[in-house]
């Protein structure tokens, strides 16, 4: 089972676009969940990629492509991880298949019209059919990894519950107060 995605596209004349081009108005994606969240490995991979780019480019060491994410940020992140340890979970160690909802995006002009909920329903249906096709059991879990301070209330309103949490200290990525990364889960039955 690999990643899956769904996209809603508006066709027809759009006065904001030349020639009435089609426009993506909403998209969502999911993939099998990996509970072993290895942020340290991701940071090291980013460092390796940066070193390779720096060898090929003329920019100064530690400078990022976007001018924001630098070696100092990587160092802060690793230091914070060393102090706080790995993310803890209350999600159990059962054999229930888990899928991560990686993204749910709706164009601002189309928000508050139920598209995000429709995307989640299509994702749920797709995962259900894949779990059923593989004979993986009568149930599965949809998982979300997000920022607690911004998105927890939204996902709670969609029936998810918080099952893992990790605090990152003030100063990391310019945050004056620190922030929490949370894992959330919702149980589903296979159709």
Q: How would you describe this structure to a colleague?
A:
Mean pLDDT is 77; it is low at 64-68. The longest helix is centred in the middle third of the chain and has 19 residues, at 115-133. The two termini are 17 Å apart. By secondary structure, this protein is an alpha+beta fold. Helix content is 32%, strand content 29%. It is globular and about 50 Å long. 15% of the residues are buried.
Low-confidence stretches: 64-68
Q: Strand order of the main beta sheet, please?
A: 1-2-4-5-7-6-3
The DSSP helix count reads 4
**Count the strands?**
7
Shape descriptor: globular
Helix content: 25-40%
Distance between the termini: 17 Å
What's the average pLDDT?
77
Measured by DSSP, the beta-strand proportion falls in 25-35%
Descriptive tags:
191 residues; 4 helices; seven-stranded mixed sheet; globular; single chain
Describe the structure concisely.
The chain is an alpha+beta fold and 191 residues long.
Topology overview:
Layout: E1 4-10, E2 23-32, H1 39-56, H2 71-84, E3 88-89, E4 98-106, H3 115-133, E5 139-147, H4 148-157, E6 161-168, E7 179-189
Parallel strand pairs: 4-5
Antiparallel strand pairs: 1-2, 2-4, 3-6, 5-7, 6-7
Helix pairs in contact: 1-2
